[in-house]
Design a protein that fits this description.
- The protein has two domains: 326 residues, HUPs (Rossmann fold), CATH 3.40.50.620; 163 residues, Isoleucyl-tRNA Synthetase, Domain 1 (Orthogonal Bundle), CATH 1.10.730.
- Helix content is 49%, strand content 15%.
- The chain has 20 helices and 17 strands.
- The chain binds ligand ME8.
- The site of ligand ME8 has 21 residues, from β1, α1, α7 and β11.
Protein backbone atom coordinates (compact mmCIF):
# COMPACT_ATOMS: atom_id res chain seq x y z
CA UNK A 1 0.00 0.00 0.00
CA UNK A 2 1.28 3.44 -0.90
CA UNK A 3 2.24 5.82 1.90
CA UNK A 4 0.85 8.85 0.03
CA UNK A 5 -2.74 9.96 -0.19
CA UNK A 6 -4.06 12.74 -2.44
CA UNK A 7 -7.67 13.86 -2.09
CA UNK A 8 -9.46 16.70 -3.89
CA UNK A 9 -12.82 18.48 -3.82
CA UNK A 10 -14.34 20.12 -6.88
CA UNK A 11 -13.22 23.71 -7.23
CA UNK A 12 -16.31 25.78 -6.58
CA UNK A 13 -17.68 28.60 -8.73
CA UNK A 14 -17.18 32.03 -7.25
CA UNK A 15 -20.64 33.18 -8.30
CA UNK A 16 -21.86 33.00 -4.71
CA UNK A 17 -20.93 32.14 -1.14
CA UNK A 18 -20.74 28.43 -0.23
CA UNK A 19 -23.87 26.56 0.88
CA UNK A 20 -24.52 23.31 2.70
CA UNK A 21 -23.89 21.26 -0.51
CA UNK A 22 -20.37 22.63 -0.89
CA UNK A 23 -19.82 22.02 2.80
CA UNK A 24 -20.87 18.40 2.40
CA UNK A 25 -18.22 17.59 -0.22
CA UNK A 26 -15.52 19.57 1.55
CA UNK A 27 -16.10 17.99 4.96
CA UNK A 28 -16.13 14.52 3.34
CA UNK A 29 -12.69 15.16 1.88
CA UNK A 30 -11.52 16.69 5.16
CA UNK A 31 -12.64 13.62 7.14
CA UNK A 32 -10.78 11.33 4.76
CA UNK A 33 -7.67 13.53 4.80
CA UNK A 34 -7.72 13.65 8.61
CA UNK A 35 -8.29 9.92 8.89
CA UNK A 36 -5.43 9.06 6.54
CA UNK A 37 -3.10 11.46 8.33
CA UNK A 38 -3.93 9.56 11.52
CA UNK A 39 -3.21 6.30 9.70
CA UNK A 40 0.30 7.65 9.19
CA UNK A 41 -0.01 8.51 5.49
CA UNK A 42 1.56 11.48 3.82
CA UNK A 43 -1.60 13.37 2.85
CA UNK A 44 -2.21 16.15 0.35
CA UNK A 45 -5.69 17.66 0.48
CA UNK A 46 -6.60 20.16 -2.26
CA UNK A 47 -9.60 22.43 -2.61
CA UNK A 48 -10.12 25.75 -4.35
CA UNK A 49 -12.22 27.88 -6.64
CA UNK A 50 -13.22 27.90 -10.31
CA UNK A 51 -13.01 31.51 -11.39
CA UNK A 52 -13.24 31.75 -15.20
CA UNK A 53 -16.01 31.42 -17.75
CA UNK A 54 -19.41 32.59 -18.72
CA UNK A 55 -21.09 32.10 -15.34
CA UNK A 56 -18.60 34.31 -13.54
CA UNK A 57 -18.54 36.91 -16.31
CA UNK A 58 -22.33 37.11 -16.26
CA UNK A 59 -22.55 37.32 -12.48
CA UNK A 60 -19.91 40.07 -12.39
CA UNK A 61 -21.96 42.05 -14.89
CA UNK A 62 -25.00 41.71 -12.63
CA UNK A 63 -23.13 42.80 -9.50
CA UNK A 64 -21.33 45.61 -11.33
CA UNK A 65 -17.89 44.28 -10.48
CA UNK A 66 -14.99 43.12 -12.59
CA UNK A 67 -14.83 39.30 -12.66
CA UNK A 68 -11.64 39.29 -10.63
CA UNK A 69 -13.13 41.64 -8.00
CA UNK A 70 -16.10 39.26 -7.73
CA UNK A 71 -13.75 36.27 -7.40
CA UNK A 72 -11.58 38.04 -4.80
CA UNK A 73 -14.66 38.86 -2.74
CA UNK A 74 -16.39 35.46 -2.93
CA UNK A 75 -13.22 33.44 -2.38
CA UNK A 76 -13.02 35.04 1.07
CA UNK A 77 -16.42 33.58 1.91
CA UNK A 78 -15.13 30.10 1.08
CA UNK A 79 -11.98 30.61 3.11
CA UNK A 80 -14.00 31.89 6.08
CA UNK A 81 -16.43 28.95 5.95
CA UNK A 82 -13.64 26.38 5.70
CA UNK A 83 -11.79 28.04 8.59
CA UNK A 84 -14.93 27.99 10.71
CA UNK A 85 -15.43 24.28 10.00
CA UNK A 86 -11.81 23.41 10.77
CA UNK A 87 -11.09 22.20 7.23
CA UNK A 88 -7.40 21.33 7.11
CA UNK A 89 -6.57 21.61 3.42
CA UNK A 90 -2.93 21.59 2.31
CA UNK A 91 -3.51 23.83 -0.67
CA UNK A 92 -6.23 26.09 -2.03
CA UNK A 93 -6.03 26.75 -5.74
CA UNK A 94 -7.67 29.58 -7.65
CA UNK A 95 -7.83 29.14 -11.41
CA UNK A 96 -6.87 32.80 -11.91
CA UNK A 97 -3.43 32.10 -10.43
CA UNK A 98 -0.43 32.15 -12.74
CA UNK A 99 0.71 28.68 -11.61
CA UNK A 100 -2.56 27.28 -12.93
CA UNK A 101 -2.87 29.26 -16.15
CA UNK A 102 0.53 28.23 -17.41
CA UNK A 103 -0.21 24.51 -16.97
CA UNK A 104 -3.54 24.87 -18.81
CA UNK A 105 -1.81 26.60 -21.70
CA UNK A 106 1.00 24.04 -21.79
CA UNK A 107 -1.55 21.19 -21.88
CA UNK A 108 -3.56 22.78 -24.69
CA UNK A 109 -0.40 23.53 -26.64
CA UNK A 110 0.66 19.91 -26.35
CA UNK A 111 -2.72 18.69 -27.59
CA UNK A 112 -2.62 21.12 -30.52
CA UNK A 113 0.83 19.80 -31.40
CA UNK A 114 -0.32 16.19 -31.36
CA UNK A 115 -3.49 17.02 -33.32
CA UNK A 116 -5.89 15.96 -30.55
CA UNK A 117 -7.07 19.58 -30.40
CA UNK A 118 -8.00 20.87 -33.86
CA UNK A 119 -9.76 23.87 -35.36
CA UNK A 120 -13.24 23.39 -36.82
CA UNK A 121 -16.74 24.84 -36.86
CA UNK A 122 -19.21 24.42 -34.06
CA UNK A 123 -22.84 24.35 -34.97
CA UNK A 124 -25.56 24.48 -32.40
CA UNK A 125 -28.63 26.21 -31.04
CA UNK A 126 -27.68 29.52 -29.52
CA UNK A 127 -29.52 31.96 -27.28
CA UNK A 128 -28.16 35.40 -28.11
CA UNK A 129 -29.35 37.24 -24.94
CA UNK A 130 -27.91 34.50 -22.69
CA UNK A 131 -24.89 33.93 -24.91
CA UNK A 132 -25.11 30.15 -24.50
CA UNK A 133 -25.50 27.11 -26.64
CA UNK A 134 -28.06 24.48 -25.79
CA UNK A 135 -28.94 21.06 -27.13
CA UNK A 136 -31.99 20.12 -29.18
CA UNK A 137 -33.51 18.38 -26.16
CA UNK A 138 -32.94 21.36 -23.87
CA UNK A 139 -34.51 23.79 -26.31
CA UNK A 140 -38.11 22.65 -26.15
CA UNK A 141 -40.12 24.27 -28.98
CA UNK A 142 -37.02 26.16 -30.04
CA UNK A 143 -36.93 28.20 -26.81
CA UNK A 144 -33.96 28.83 -24.53
CA UNK A 145 -34.19 26.65 -21.38
CA UNK A 146 -33.02 29.62 -19.25
CA UNK A 147 -34.90 32.67 -20.50
CA UNK A 148 -37.57 31.18 -22.77
CA UNK A 149 -36.64 33.36 -25.77
CA UNK A 150 -36.17 31.80 -29.24
CA UNK A 151 -32.84 30.16 -29.99
CA UNK A 152 -31.08 30.34 -33.36
CA UNK A 153 -28.89 27.95 -35.29
CA UNK A 154 -25.38 29.34 -35.14
CA UNK A 155 -22.09 28.25 -36.55
CA UNK A 156 -18.82 29.50 -35.20
CA UNK A 157 -15.16 28.71 -35.31
CA UNK A 158 -14.10 26.51 -32.43
CA UNK A 159 -11.32 24.21 -31.32
CA UNK A 160 -12.33 20.62 -30.73
CA UNK A 161 -10.87 17.90 -28.58
CA UNK A 162 -10.69 14.46 -30.21
CA UNK A 163 -12.61 12.75 -27.42
CA UNK A 164 -14.02 10.03 -29.66
CA UNK A 165 -10.50 8.58 -30.06
CA UNK A 166 -10.24 7.80 -26.35
CA UNK A 167 -13.65 6.28 -25.71
CA UNK A 168 -12.61 2.65 -26.25
CA UNK A 169 -9.43 2.89 -24.09
CA UNK A 170 -11.45 4.58 -21.35
CA UNK A 171 -14.13 1.87 -21.36
CA UNK A 172 -11.32 -0.68 -21.06
CA UNK A 173 -9.77 1.21 -18.14
CA UNK A 174 -13.10 1.43 -16.30
CA UNK A 175 -13.82 -2.24 -16.83
CA UNK A 176 -10.35 -3.32 -15.72
CA UNK A 177 -10.35 -1.10 -12.62
CA UNK A 178 -13.63 -1.79 -10.84
CA UNK A 179 -12.95 0.83 -8.15
CA UNK A 180 -12.08 3.64 -10.57
CA UNK A 181 -15.60 5.09 -10.35
CA UNK A 182 -17.67 4.60 -7.23
CA UNK A 183 -20.42 3.86 -6.39
CA UNK A 184 -21.15 1.04 -8.80
CA UNK A 185 -24.47 2.57 -9.98
CA UNK A 186 -22.68 5.75 -11.10
CA UNK A 187 -19.99 3.73 -12.85
CA UNK A 188 -22.71 2.03 -14.89
CA UNK A 189 -24.15 5.41 -15.83
CA UNK A 190 -20.76 6.49 -17.14
CA UNK A 191 -20.31 3.26 -19.08
CA UNK A 192 -23.79 3.70 -20.55
CA UNK A 193 -22.84 7.17 -21.76
CA UNK A 194 -19.53 5.98 -23.22
CA UNK A 195 -21.21 3.13 -25.06
CA UNK A 196 -23.56 5.60 -26.80
CA UNK A 197 -22.45 8.02 -29.49
CA UNK A 198 -19.63 10.15 -28.05
CA UNK A 199 -18.60 13.08 -30.25
CA UNK A 200 -15.54 15.30 -30.14
CA UNK A 201 -16.18 18.26 -27.86
CA UNK A 202 -15.72 21.96 -28.35
CA UNK A 203 -12.79 23.04 -26.21
CA UNK A 204 -12.74 26.81 -26.83
CA UNK A 205 -15.11 29.77 -26.72
CA UNK A 206 -15.09 32.99 -28.72
CA UNK A 207 -18.12 34.40 -26.87
CA UNK A 208 -16.37 35.06 -23.58
CA UNK A 209 -13.52 37.35 -22.59
CA UNK A 210 -13.05 36.04 -19.07
CA UNK A 211 -10.93 32.96 -19.60
CA UNK A 212 -7.47 31.65 -20.35
CA UNK A 213 -6.44 32.50 -23.94
CA UNK A 214 -5.86 29.62 -26.33
CA UNK A 215 -2.27 29.56 -27.63
CA UNK A 216 -1.55 31.72 -30.72
CA UNK A 217 -2.57 30.01 -33.95
CA UNK A 218 -2.25 31.68 -37.39
CA UNK A 219 -5.15 29.53 -38.65
CA UNK A 220 -7.63 31.02 -36.18
CA UNK A 221 -9.67 34.02 -37.35
CA UNK A 222 -10.99 34.89 -33.91
CA UNK A 223 -9.67 35.17 -30.39
CA UNK A 224 -10.47 32.00 -28.42
CA UNK A 225 -10.59 31.29 -24.70
CA UNK A 226 -10.11 27.83 -23.20
CA UNK A 227 -13.38 26.06 -22.37
CA UNK A 228 -13.95 26.46 -18.65
CA UNK A 229 -14.14 22.73 -17.89
CA UNK A 230 -10.76 22.04 -19.47
CA UNK A 231 -9.41 24.95 -17.43
CA UNK A 232 -11.09 23.81 -14.19
CA UNK A 233 -10.21 20.10 -14.32
CA UNK A 234 -6.54 20.89 -14.86
CA UNK A 235 -6.42 22.33 -11.32
CA UNK A 236 -5.89 18.85 -9.88
CA UNK A 237 -2.52 18.73 -11.59
CA UNK A 238 -1.54 22.40 -11.80
CA UNK A 239 -1.77 22.67 -7.99
CA UNK A 240 0.94 20.04 -7.65
CA UNK A 241 3.23 22.25 -9.75
CA UNK A 242 4.25 19.50 -12.17
CA UNK A 243 6.97 21.57 -13.81
CA UNK A 244 8.60 22.99 -10.69
CA UNK A 245 8.02 20.26 -8.19
CA UNK A 246 8.41 16.93 -9.81
CA UNK A 247 8.85 15.08 -6.50
CA UNK A 248 5.51 16.33 -5.17
CA UNK A 249 3.76 15.62 -8.44
CA UNK A 250 5.18 12.09 -8.76
CA UNK A 251 4.37 11.33 -5.16
CA UNK A 252 0.77 12.48 -5.09
CA UNK A 253 -0.65 12.41 -8.60
CA UNK A 254 -0.86 8.59 -8.95
CA UNK A 255 -2.81 8.50 -5.66
CA UNK A 256 -5.41 11.10 -6.67
CA UNK A 257 -8.95 10.59 -5.41
CA UNK A 258 -11.48 13.09 -6.72
CA UNK A 259 -14.58 13.57 -4.55
CA UNK A 260 -17.40 15.13 -6.58
CA UNK A 261 -21.15 15.56 -6.59
CA UNK A 262 -23.07 13.41 -9.08
CA UNK A 263 -23.87 16.55 -11.11
CA UNK A 264 -20.31 16.78 -12.34
CA UNK A 265 -19.43 13.11 -12.63
CA UNK A 266 -19.37 13.07 -16.43
CA UNK A 267 -16.78 15.85 -16.51
CA UNK A 268 -14.59 13.92 -14.08
CA UNK A 269 -15.15 10.41 -15.35
CA UNK A 270 -15.23 11.05 -19.11
CA UNK A 271 -13.77 14.44 -20.02
CA UNK A 272 -10.88 14.46 -17.55
CA UNK A 273 -9.64 10.91 -18.16
CA UNK A 274 -9.77 11.38 -21.96
CA UNK A 275 -7.86 14.68 -21.68
CA UNK A 276 -5.26 12.88 -19.56
CA UNK A 277 -5.00 9.94 -21.95
CA UNK A 278 -4.40 12.35 -24.82
CA UNK A 279 -1.72 14.10 -22.75
CA UNK A 280 -0.06 10.78 -21.93
CA UNK A 281 -0.66 11.29 -18.18
CA UNK A 282 -1.79 8.40 -16.01
CA UNK A 283 -5.35 8.55 -14.76
CA UNK A 284 -6.35 9.41 -11.19
CA UNK A 285 -6.82 6.48 -8.88
CA UNK A 286 -10.47 7.00 -8.07
CA UNK A 287 -13.51 9.18 -8.64
CA UNK A 288 -16.13 9.12 -5.91
CA UNK A 289 -19.51 10.58 -6.75
CA UNK A 290 -21.84 11.46 -3.90
CA UNK A 291 -25.53 12.28 -4.01
CA UNK A 292 -27.28 15.59 -3.46
CA UNK A 293 -28.70 17.13 -0.35
CA UNK A 294 -32.25 17.94 -1.27
CA UNK A 295 -35.05 20.11 0.04
CA UNK A 296 -38.51 18.78 -0.79
CA UNK A 297 -36.71 16.44 -3.20
CA UNK A 298 -35.10 19.34 -5.11
CA UNK A 299 -31.32 19.77 -5.18
CA UNK A 300 -30.23 22.43 -2.73
CA UNK A 301 -28.56 25.15 -4.79
CA UNK A 302 -28.13 28.89 -5.04
CA UNK A 303 -29.90 29.06 -8.36
CA UNK A 304 -33.00 27.33 -7.00
CA UNK A 305 -33.06 29.79 -4.12
CA UNK A 306 -33.02 27.15 -1.38
CA UNK A 307 -29.35 27.42 -0.34
CA UNK A 308 -28.50 27.09 3.34
CA UNK A 309 -25.63 29.03 4.85
CA UNK A 310 -23.12 26.76 6.64
CA UNK A 311 -21.98 29.49 9.02
CA UNK A 312 -25.53 30.16 10.23
CA UNK A 313 -25.98 26.40 10.76
CA UNK A 314 -22.76 26.19 12.76
CA UNK A 315 -24.10 28.89 15.09
CA UNK A 316 -27.29 26.90 15.54
CA UNK A 317 -26.07 23.35 16.08
CA UNK A 318 -22.29 23.64 16.39
CA UNK A 319 -19.52 22.73 13.99
CA UNK A 320 -19.14 19.18 15.25
CA UNK A 321 -22.91 18.71 15.33
CA UNK A 322 -23.08 19.68 11.67
CA UNK A 323 -20.06 17.61 10.62
CA UNK A 324 -21.50 14.58 12.38
CA UNK A 325 -25.06 14.98 11.15
CA UNK A 326 -24.05 15.21 7.48
CA UNK A 327 -22.15 11.94 7.56
CA UNK A 328 -24.26 9.92 9.98
CA UNK A 329 -27.61 10.77 8.47
CA UNK A 330 -26.98 10.46 4.73
CA UNK A 331 -25.68 7.59 2.64
CA UNK A 332 -22.73 9.09 0.76
CA UNK A 333 -23.57 7.86 -2.73
CA UNK A 334 -27.28 8.67 -2.52
CA UNK A 335 -29.46 11.78 -2.34
CA UNK A 336 -30.63 12.76 1.12
CA UNK A 337 -33.49 15.00 2.17
CA UNK A 338 -32.34 17.70 4.56
CA UNK A 339 -34.72 18.88 7.25
CA UNK A 340 -34.08 20.76 10.44
CA UNK A 341 -36.12 18.28 12.48
CA UNK A 342 -33.99 15.33 11.38
CA UNK A 343 -30.82 17.32 12.01
CA UNK A 344 -31.81 18.29 15.57
CA UNK A 345 -33.06 14.80 16.38
CA UNK A 346 -29.90 13.15 15.12
CA UNK A 347 -27.57 15.47 17.02
CA UNK A 348 -29.58 15.18 20.23
CA UNK A 349 -29.97 11.41 20.05
CA UNK A 350 -26.45 10.40 19.04
CA UNK A 351 -24.23 13.16 20.33
CA UNK A 352 -26.02 14.64 23.35
CA UNK A 353 -27.69 11.43 24.60
CA UNK A 354 -25.38 8.61 23.56
CA UNK A 355 -21.83 9.83 23.19
CA UNK A 356 -21.90 12.98 25.37
CA UNK A 357 -23.78 11.28 28.21
CA UNK A 358 -21.57 8.26 28.12
CA UNK A 359 -18.38 10.33 28.40
CA UNK A 360 -20.00 12.31 31.17
CA UNK A 361 -21.10 9.25 33.11
CA UNK A 362 -17.82 7.37 32.88
CA UNK A 363 -15.57 10.35 33.64
CA UNK A 364 -17.81 11.13 36.60
CA UNK A 365 -17.76 7.59 38.03
CA UNK A 366 -14.02 6.94 37.71
CA UNK A 367 -12.85 9.72 40.10
CA UNK A 368 -15.88 9.05 42.32
CA UNK A 369 -15.27 5.30 42.75
CA UNK A 370 -11.54 4.97 42.05
CA UNK A 371 -10.18 8.23 43.50
CA UNK A 372 -8.57 11.29 42.00
CA UNK A 373 -5.15 9.81 41.27
CA UNK A 374 -4.17 8.36 37.89
CA UNK A 375 -5.64 4.91 37.45
CA UNK A 376 -3.76 1.96 36.10
CA UNK A 377 -5.61 0.21 33.29
CA UNK A 378 -3.17 -2.48 32.25
CA UNK A 379 -4.05 -5.36 34.59
CA UNK A 380 -7.79 -5.16 33.85
CA UNK A 381 -7.67 -4.91 30.07
CA UNK A 382 -6.37 -8.42 29.46
CA UNK A 383 -9.56 -9.86 31.02
CA UNK A 384 -12.47 -10.65 28.70
CA UNK A 385 -15.68 -8.62 28.66
CA UNK A 386 -18.56 -8.02 26.31
CA UNK A 387 -17.13 -4.57 25.57
CA UNK A 388 -13.78 -6.01 24.61
CA UNK A 389 -15.51 -8.44 22.23
CA UNK A 390 -17.64 -5.64 20.83
CA UNK A 391 -14.62 -3.37 20.27
CA UNK A 392 -12.68 -6.17 18.58
CA UNK A 393 -15.57 -6.63 16.14
CA UNK A 394 -16.89 -3.13 15.54
CA UNK A 395 -13.68 -1.18 15.24
CA UNK A 396 -12.03 -3.20 12.42
CA UNK A 397 -15.44 -3.16 10.71
CA UNK A 398 -15.62 0.65 10.96
CA UNK A 399 -12.10 0.93 9.53
CA UNK A 400 -13.09 -1.18 6.56
CA UNK A 401 -16.15 0.98 5.99
CA UNK A 402 -14.07 4.15 6.01
CA UNK A 403 -11.99 2.90 3.10
CA UNK A 404 -15.21 2.60 1.04
CA UNK A 405 -16.36 6.11 1.97
CA UNK A 406 -19.24 4.45 3.88
CA UNK A 407 -19.24 7.14 6.53
CA UNK A 408 -22.70 6.39 7.90
CA UNK A 409 -21.91 2.70 8.29
CA UNK A 410 -18.57 3.40 9.97
CA UNK A 411 -20.33 5.67 12.47
CA UNK A 412 -23.04 3.08 12.99
CA UNK A 413 -20.36 0.51 13.82
CA UNK A 414 -18.71 2.84 16.33
CA UNK A 415 -22.11 3.61 17.82
CA UNK A 416 -22.56 -0.08 18.55
CA UNK A 417 -19.59 0.27 20.88
CA UNK A 418 -20.85 3.52 22.44
CA UNK A 419 -24.35 2.12 23.01
CA UNK A 420 -22.64 -1.00 24.32
CA UNK A 421 -20.95 1.09 27.02
CA UNK A 422 -24.26 2.62 28.12
CA UNK A 423 -25.83 -0.85 28.29
CA UNK A 424 -22.82 -2.33 30.11
CA UNK A 425 -23.00 0.41 32.74
CA UNK A 426 -26.71 -0.30 33.30
CA UNK A 427 -26.18 -4.07 33.48
CA UNK A 428 -23.23 -3.91 35.85
CA UNK A 429 -24.52 -1.03 38.01
CA UNK A 430 -21.20 0.37 39.30
CA UNK A 431 -23.17 2.32 41.97
CA UNK A 432 -24.31 -0.98 43.53
CA UNK A 433 -20.87 -2.60 43.29
CA UNK A 434 -19.46 0.51 45.04
CA UNK A 435 -21.67 -0.08 48.05
CA UNK A 436 -20.52 -3.70 48.53
CA UNK A 437 -18.01 -4.62 51.23
CA UNK A 438 -16.83 -7.65 49.27
CA UNK A 439 -13.26 -7.07 47.87
CA UNK A 440 -14.24 -9.08 44.76
CA UNK A 441 -16.90 -6.47 44.00
CA UNK A 442 -14.32 -3.70 44.30
CA UNK A 443 -12.14 -5.47 41.72
CA UNK A 444 -15.20 -6.01 39.54
CA UNK A 445 -16.16 -2.33 39.86
CA UNK A 446 -12.70 -1.21 38.76
CA UNK A 447 -12.68 -3.62 35.85
CA UNK A 448 -16.11 -2.45 34.66
CA UNK A 449 -15.01 1.18 34.74
CA UNK A 450 -11.68 0.51 33.05
CA UNK A 451 -13.42 -1.44 30.27
CA UNK A 452 -15.86 1.46 29.76
CA UNK A 453 -12.94 3.85 29.71
CA UNK A 454 -11.05 1.82 27.12
CA UNK A 455 -14.12 1.57 24.87
CA UNK A 456 -14.60 5.32 25.01
CA UNK A 457 -10.90 5.98 24.35
CA UNK A 458 -11.15 3.92 21.17
CA UNK A 459 -14.48 5.43 20.09
CA UNK A 460 -13.29 9.01 20.72
CA UNK A 461 -10.06 8.45 18.84
CA UNK A 462 -11.97 7.07 15.87
CA UNK A 463 -14.29 10.08 15.95
CA UNK A 464 -11.51 12.69 15.76
CA UNK A 465 -11.75 13.12 11.95
CA UNK A 466 -15.55 13.54 12.18
CA UNK A 467 -15.93 15.75 15.25
CA UNK A 468 -12.38 16.96 15.91
CA UNK A 469 -13.07 19.47 18.67
CA UNK A 470 -15.39 17.34 20.82
CA UNK A 471 -13.51 14.07 20.29
CA UNK A 472 -10.25 15.72 21.36
CA UNK A 473 -12.01 17.18 24.41
CA UNK A 474 -13.32 13.70 25.25
CA UNK A 475 -9.82 12.23 24.99
CA UNK A 476 -8.66 15.01 27.30
CA UNK A 477 -11.26 14.13 29.96
CA UNK A 478 -10.36 10.46 29.60
CA UNK A 479 -6.71 11.40 30.17
CA UNK A 480 -5.61 9.84 26.88
CA UNK A 481 -4.93 12.91 24.74
CA UNK A 482 -1.39 11.56 24.28
CA UNK A 483 -3.01 9.20 21.74
CA UNK A 484 -3.27 12.23 19.49
CA UNK A 485 0.51 12.46 19.23
CA UNK A 486 0.15 9.41 17.02
CA UNK A 487 3.38 7.81 18.12
CA UNK A 488 1.89 4.74 16.53
CA UNK A 489 -0.48 4.84 13.53
CA UNK A 490 -4.19 4.96 14.26
CA UNK A 491 -4.73 1.31 13.35
CA UNK A 492 -2.45 0.24 16.22
CA UNK A 493 -3.89 2.74 18.66
CA UNK A 494 -7.40 1.54 17.98
CA UNK A 495 -6.52 -1.91 19.28
CA UNK A 496 -7.95 -2.81 22.69
CA UNK A 497 -5.34 -2.26 25.40
CA UNK A 498 -3.01 -0.08 23.32
CA UNK A 499 -3.69 3.17 25.21
CA UNK A 500 -1.61 4.76 28.00
CA UNK A 501 -0.99 2.43 30.96
CA UNK A 502 -1.99 4.97 33.57
CA UNK A 503 -4.56 7.70 33.00
CA UNK A 504 -5.73 10.74 34.87
CA UNK A 505 -9.48 11.04 34.33
CA UNK A 506 -11.33 14.32 34.91
CA UNK A 507 -15.08 14.76 35.14
CA UNK A 508 -16.27 16.17 31.83
CA UNK A 509 -18.43 19.20 31.23
CA UNK A 510 -21.36 18.38 28.88
CA UNK A 511 -19.86 17.88 25.43
CA UNK A 512 -23.10 18.45 23.53
CA UNK A 513 -25.83 20.48 25.21
CA UNK A 514 -29.31 19.28 24.22
CA UNK A 515 -30.67 21.40 21.37
CA UNK A 516 -34.15 22.85 21.54
CA UNK A 517 -35.86 22.12 18.23
CA UNK A 518 -37.07 25.50 16.93
CA UNK A 519 -40.79 25.80 16.24
CA UNK A 520 -41.21 26.49 12.55
O1 LIG B 1 -19.65 22.47 -10.49
N1 LIG B 1 -25.74 18.43 -2.47
O2 LIG B 1 -18.88 24.12 -9.07
P1 LIG B 1 -20.14 24.35 -8.10
C1 LIG B 1 -24.50 17.93 -2.43
N2 LIG B 1 -16.89 24.64 -10.68
N3 LIG B 1 -23.44 18.53 -2.98
C2 LIG B 1 -23.63 19.69 -3.60
C3 LIG B 1 -24.91 20.29 -3.69
C4 LIG B 1 -26.00 19.61 -3.08
N4 LIG B 1 -27.23 20.08 -3.07
N5 LIG B 1 -24.79 21.44 -4.35
C5 LIG B 1 -23.47 21.58 -4.67
C6 LIG B 1 -18.81 23.29 -10.15
N6 LIG B 1 -22.78 20.53 -4.22
C7 LIG B 1 -17.50 23.40 -10.91
C8 LIG B 1 -16.62 22.25 -10.50
S1 LIG B 1 -14.31 20.87 -10.59
C9 LIG B 1 -13.03 20.76 -11.64
C10 LIG B 1 -15.28 22.18 -11.20
C11 LIG B 1 -21.32 20.30 -4.33
O3 LIG B 1 -19.80 25.57 -7.31
C12 LIG B 1 -21.01 19.04 -5.13
O4 LIG B 1 -19.72 18.59 -4.81
O5 LIG B 1 -21.40 24.32 -8.86
C13 LIG B 1 -21.00 19.56 -6.53
O6 LIG B 1 -20.33 18.70 -7.41
C14 LIG B 1 -20.28 20.87 -6.35
O7 LIG B 1 -20.75 21.36 -5.07
C15 LIG B 1 -20.57 21.87 -7.45
O8 LIG B 1 -20.05 23.10 -7.11
Amino acid sequence: MSSSYYITTPIYYVTDAPHIGHLYTTVAADIMAHYHRMLGKDVWFLTGTDEHGQKIQKKAKETGETPIALADRVVQRYLEAWKEYGIEFNDFIRTTEERHKKVVQAFIKKLMDTGDVYLGDYEGLYCIPCETYCTETQATNGKCPDCGRPVEKLREESYFFRMSKYVAPLIKHIEENPNFILPESRKNEVLGFLKGEVKDISISRTTIDWGIPMPQDPKATKSHKVYVWFDALTNYISALGPQENDAKYSKFWPEAIHVVGKDILRFHAVYWPTFLMALGIRLPKQIIAHGWLTDSNRKISKSLGNAIDPIALAKEVGIDGMRFFLFREFVFGQDGEYTKEIMYQRINADLANDFGNCINRVTNMIPKYMGNNPISTESYLTNPSELKTLANNCVPQAQKEMLDFSFNKALESIWKLISGVNRYVENNAPWTLAKSKDPKDKTKLEEVLVHCHESLRIASLFLVPFIPKSAKLALGYLGTESDLNLVAPLKTQLVWGSGPKAVQVTKSAPLFPRLEIPKS
